[in-house]
Amino acid sequence: MNTPTPFRPVVLCLSGHDPSGGAGLQADIEALIAQGCHAAPAVTALTVQNTVDVMDFRVLDREWVLAQAKAVLDDMPVSAVKLGMLGNLQMVDTVVEIMQAHPELPLVCDPVLRAGGGGSLGKDEVGYAMREKLLPIARIVTPNLPEARILAELPNGTADECADKLLQRCQNLLITGGHGDELDIHNRLYCRDGSTHTFTCPRLPGSYHGSGCTLASALAGRLALGEELVSAVKTALDYTWRTLRDAEQPGHGQYVPRRLPLDFCQ
């Protein structure tokens, strides 16, 4: 008689669909597979975008998103939740409702407000609603510096200044760098207990589509596997840097992270 194969940790992903495959749910799925986890993707929005920019998007009805999440949570032992694009205020409330029913699950909140090409993925009030309603229930929030400035309402704020304001609402905050012209990129983890951790990596040439999704999903996977927070952040950052180092350019715009090895399906 065969011994049953142990199941991989399940991560519920509430994110938008990117038809280019660079960001969104495909990024979530690939990054989680690379961590040894199983991705359960629940679609929050459909987008018209490519590696150049976003042309349009449509947020799904909240009943559909609630039904997707409930179907997964009723069936699988979910170990973590990863949050991506929401797009409107109703979807923020939808996620709050899901998490209120499962407060034991660590939530990794990637505040997707704009695509890598600069196109908007939600109205300005979505950032405010996320700050007020989602940051307090997230285990960790992973904005890049421009997103942190939107959430903190500090248009020219430094990472430290944004963290001072946002840590009043969230437990842990990872602000990623790379949006200036520094030679080395500094990613900073701020914890409510007052500790800070800086992770430095060399800057890579080019710009990338889906790096934030990749990082947040990898981090959710590490937490689902039971890794301690600071170690999980480092592991996820190291993995993401490697996907950018090995990135490819399938279209006319940004590079797409290579989240799985070339021989993955061979």
Brief rundown of the structure:
It is built from eight helices and nine strands.
Tell me what you see in this structure.
One of its GO terms (cellular component) is cytosol. Pfam families: Phos_pyr_kin (PF08543). With 266 residues, the chain is an alpha/beta fold. It has one domain: Ribokinase (UDP-N-acetylmuramoyl-L-alanine:D-glutamate ligase). Helices cover 36% and strands 21% of the residues. The strands form two sheets. A six-stranded mixed beta sheet has the order 3-2-1-4-5-6, with helices on both faces. It is globular.
Core attributes:
8 helices; 9 strands; single chain; 3-stranded antiparallel β-sheet; 6-stranded mixed β-sheet; alpha/beta; 266 residues; UDP-N-acetylmuramoyl-L-alanine:D-glutamate ligase; globular
Chart the SSEs and their pairings.
Elements lengths: L9 E8 L6 H11 L3 E12 L4 E6 L2 H14 L2 E6 L5 H12 L6 E3 L14 H11 L5 E2 L3 H8 L6 H8 L5 E4 L8 E8 L4 E7 L8 H14 L4 H17 L21
Parallel strand pairs: 1-2, 1-4, 4-5, 5-6
Antiparallel strand pairs: 2-3, 7-8, 8-9
Helix pairs in contact: 1-7, 2-3, 3-4, 5-6, 7-8
Radius of gyration over all CA atoms, rounded:
17 Å
Proportion of residues in extended strands = 15-25%
Query: What do the pLDDT scores average to?
Result: 92
Report the end-to-end length measured between terminal Cα atoms. 28 Å
* CATH T-level fold name: UDP-N-acetylmuramoyl-L-alanine:D-glutamate ligase
Find the CATH superfamily: Ribokinase
Going across the major beta sheet, what is the strand order?
Answer: 3-2-1-4-5-6
CATH architecture: 3-Layer(aba) Sandwich
Helical fraction equals 25-40%
Q: What is the number of helices? A: 8
Secondary-structure element string: EHEEHEHEHEHHEEEHH
What's the domain count?
Answer: 1
Which runs of at least 5 residues are low in confidence (pLDDT < 50)? none
Largest sheet, if any? 6 strands, mixed
Number of strand segments: 9
- From the helix content, strand content and strand pairing, which structural class follows? alpha/beta
Return the CATH class: Alpha Beta
